[in-house]
Amino acid sequence: MSERDGARVPLLTQGDLPDEYQYLFGEDVLGELHLFQSMGHVPRAMQAYMRYGTSLWNAGDLSTRERELAILAVSRTLRARYEWHQHVELGREAGITAAEIDAIARDDDCQFPGREQAIMRYASAVATGGVTDPLFEAAAEFTDTETVVGLTMLASHYLMTARILDALAVPIDDEEFVGWAPE
Fold first, then answer.
1. Distances in whole angstroms, Cα of residue 70 to Cα of each of 46, 65, 95, 154
2. pLDDT tens for residues 27-73?
């Protein structure tokens, strides 16, 4: 049985959606991902989820690299294979090296500058419900209030996404998991 066969809900195609939502599965929107194919059963909520997630990518002053570091940290903390698999490549595109991805997979942030450490540690703590005053203060020291709030919302969004993926047993899009220490 392939991972796709193990999904708890059918993975929908563009034609399965009501006409007014079919654009969500267009080439420019990412709807072809299994995450969205499973969410398509509630197209209005999927649309809102997609818009909300997109808005969080630009919340505060996180760079693309910092945003991907935060998402990878959350994915690793939660052992969220689907999210890790998707964001390893996005992280590489954002300038995260293979050695840095390997370090994140091992939960070793020593090689990262203080700002990036604070961002990753805070994002991981948000995902586990373990934010302490020192973790919050470290994140706030390196950023600003808008960015800490945005980072909180971003990490929470990926926590929610991990729970959706897990509950619906959504398979990884490329049949084979990239691995926790990808080449």
1. 23, 9, 14, 8
2. 776 668 999 999 999 999 999 999 999 999 888 899 999 999 999 99
Residue 66: name the closest of 124, 138, 119 by CA.
119
Which tokens go with 53? 């997630």
SS3 175: coil
Domain 64-167 has CATH 1.20.1250.20: no
Q: Looking at residues 103-117, what average pLDDT do you find?
A: 96
Provide the residue ranges of all domains of the chain, joining segments of one domain with +: 14-56, 64-167
> Quick check: 164 and 82 in contact, CB under 8 A?
no
Enclosing H/E stretch for 56: helix 43-56
61 touches 149 (CB < 8 A): no
Of 174, 163, 177, whose CA–CA distance to 39 is shortest?
A: 163
Encoded tokens for 100: 């840095």
